[in-house]
Design brief:
This protein is of the alpha+beta class. Helix content is 50%, strand content 14%. The chain has helices at 3-30, 33-53, 84-93, 126-129, 140-162, 168-176; strands spanning 59-67, 73-79, 101-105, 112-116.
């Protein structure tokens, strides 16, 4: 065997375990149940907030695929907050807000949860808050999980909002996606 081939074989033998370790940690981190559940709940919270900001009287014309008796296509007014245009725009930017959440211990269940700590733009303290720059790499897994959830469950998100589903976080995160466990009910004696 030539010296170049030996060098390449040694390089591959050294590189292979490193790649395996890197890949296995990435895969393990991608499906961390606490992160995905937290991202789902944060996503639902942000969606509910954005929808609530839009007044119910604001509507948009939506073309339907039904043909009227006169041969024209029907138009239907729907709330703007339920429109595909609005929801698509919101979903494109919503995961950037995962930086506004931090990992905490739930005082009741002692489980790790993500809670919003940053004020929203319409809150009076926001101007003061923005004077300080808060950024952390710690939120990257939450942002990745948020983007993955949107990619995998976008149709379900649109459907739940169109149905005006109450308890969006429970419907999306427990029932539709299974990313969060159903909370245990404790009966008092």
């Amino acid at each position: 065997m030539q010296a170049g081939a030996w060098g390449m074989a040694v390089f591959c033998l050294l590189l292979l375990p490193l790649l395996f370790a890197l890949f296995s940690n990435t895969v393990k981190g991608q499906r961390d149940p606490e992160v995905f559940c937290g991202a789902c709940k944060a996503l639902a919270d942000e969606l509910a907030y954005d929808i609530k900001k839009i007044g119910p009287k604001r509507t948009v014309n939506s073309r339907t695929y039904r043909i009227n008796p006169d041969g024209t296509r029907g138009k239907k007014k729907i709330p703007f907050a339920k429109s595909e245009t609005f929801l698509t725009d919101v979903l494109e930017k919503i995961c950037d807000r995962m930086n506004d959440y931090q990992l905490q211990d739930d005082p009741v269940t002692q489980k790790k949860i993500f809670k919003r700590y940053a004020p929203r733009k319409d809150e009076p303290i926001y101007a003061e808050y923005k004077k300080y720059f808060f950024y952390s790499d710690a939120y990257k897994p939450l942002k990745y999980a948020c983007e993955t959830i949107i990619e995998q469950y976008e149709d379900e998100i649109f459907s739940l909002i169109a149905q005006e589903a109450d308890f969006l976080a429970d419907k999306l995160c427990i029932e539709k996606s299974g990313l969060c466990e159903k909370p245990e009910m404790h009966s008092e004696l």
